[in-house]
Specification:
The chain has an 8-stranded mixed sheet, with helices on both faces. The chain is built from 12 helices and 8 strands. It has 314 residues and is of the alpha/beta class. 49% of the residues are buried. The chain has a single domain, classed as 3-Layer(aba) Sandwich (Rossmann fold), CATH 3.40.50.1820. The longest helix is centred in the C-terminal third of the chain and has 17 residues.
Length: 314
């Protein structure tokens, strides 16, 4: 059986090397103390969901992050998007400031949590924007609840790449809670750098956040969420379902994405993976951003924001 999947290498564990660069000896950073640059609110039912809520436009964008990240990964996009739209940036359960527990963490679970949040906020129809794993969740959501989505924006999305059964089994085998917990600062920096065409010091906030949160009281539950999310992506593939997407769709990706396709299992060109979107989705646009990697909304925020806004204005 073949599978799709994108952001695995970000959390794939490179254990070798020294620990102790800049942040290893710093104080713990509890998840509740994350600074996204924006105020957060919460839906308090179980599981509680934390979210950023900015702007007051007539239409609403829900931003959904990828594997092992959080709502703060949209910090360079929220302000610009919120000039015209209401923007909700979500911490998925298990991540960021949202509740962490031993949930199933598959794509259906996450899609249903997004629906629950939209219901709580009385959003009948909205624009869904999802990065990487958030993209695969968006595909799942669009198939389950197409009437709730006005437009679907998939950013470097998981869900298009195919994996053989044995490849999926290998990915499961390398993703363990203890491995996530033991990743050194050097390994964290290396894993993050893979996500960018050009890593630089301005991106070090991600390393600091990840290193310090490893000392947080809920980090074991976060690690469990990461591992189960990987299994969830493999358990509910969408590569063979994208032709059933019925809502207008934009796929935007970085030309030099180092994670899609998986460089170890499916070496090749990113453009070939997303050619499937153009050919299989009835109403779909595909845009490539040059000199950008996997986390392109951080690496090329101005270009990304303009592409999304131009698409939504059509």
């Amino acid at each position: 059986m073949k599978k799709i999947f994108g952001l695995i290498v970000m959390a794939t564990l490179l254990y070798s090397g020294c620990s102790g660069f800049l942040y290893t000896k710093m104080e713990p950073l509890e998840f509740s103390d994350f600074d996204y640059g924006f105020e957060t609110k919460s839906v308090l039912s179980n599981p509680s969901i934390s979210y950023i809520d900015e702007g007051s436009g007539k239409e609403t964008i829900i931003l959904v992050h990828g594997l092992a990240s959080n709502a703060g990964f949209w910090r360079y996009n929220i302000l610009e998007l919120s000039k015209k739209y209401r923007v909700i940036a979500v911490d998925l359960p298990g991540y960021g400031k949202s509740q962490k527990d031993f949930y199933i963490y598959n794509m259906t679970f996450f899609a249903d949590q997004i629906k629950r949040l939209a219901d709580e906020l009385k959003l009948e129809k909205f624009i869904y924007v999802g990065h990487s794993m958030g993209g695969q969740i968006g595909i799942n959501f669009s198939l389950r609840y197409p009437e709730r989505i006005k437009k679907l924006v998939l950013v470097s999305p998981a869900g298009f790449e195919e994996f053989e059964q044995g490849e999926g089994d290998w990915l499961r085998s390398v993703m363990k809670v203890e491995g996530v917990k033991k990743t050194t600062e050097e390994g964290i920096r290396r894993n993050l750098a893979i996500n960018f065409y050009n890593w630089n010091d301005k991106l070090e906030w991600m390393v600091e956040e990840r290193v310090r949160m490893a000392k947080a009281k809920d980090f074991e539950k976060f690690s469990y969420a990461v591992v189960r999310s990987v299994n969830g992506m493999l358990d509910e593939p969408t590569f063979n379902k994208v032709d059933k997407i019925s809502v207008p769709t934009l796929v935007v990706y970085g030309k030099y994405d180092g994670l899609i396709p998986n460089p170890y299992l499916n070496p090749g060109f990113t453009c070939d993976v997303f050619a499937r979107a153009k050919s299989n989705i009835t109403n779909c646009e595909v845009v490539e951003i040059n000199n950008a990697g996997h986390i392109l909304m951080i690496e090329k925020p101005e270009e990304f924001n303009n592409i999304v806004l131009d698409y939504l204005n059509k």
